[in-house]
Amino acid sequence: MEEADIIKDLLVDNWNSDNTGTITPVIDLIVNRSNVDVRANDFILIYNTGAGPVSHSGVRTFSHMWSVSIDLRTVLFTRYKLYIAEIKRIIGGKYLSPSNDYHRLYIIRDTDLSDKKRGMYRRVIDVQITQDLEEVTSI
pTM for the whole thing? Predict the structure, then answer.
């Protein structure tokens, strides 16, 4: 399963519209959307941004890490703030064991890309998902 699919399912399954003014944005993979009209709907688009094995010394290590971006787009500032809080609540609550095949999930970058003059609010939250926690022992 793609890592972006895991993040999408995590957001869809755990989204609480009571925390966002009873509004749920369109949550989808960016590859499924050829045209995004923010004026018609609010969007949370998800896509893979990086992957690879990890090699570093230490007591514990992960064999693989993937970066996934969560791209939030809306035209209302009030919803924008509520969506950010809801995304962070879900990610923070699933720090340990976000799914059966992954061990850790955490935010690594949070970038505000809003154009306030045009009334377009956009934020990209990059999360890292890691797999196969292994104990490293030396002889």
Answer: 0.84
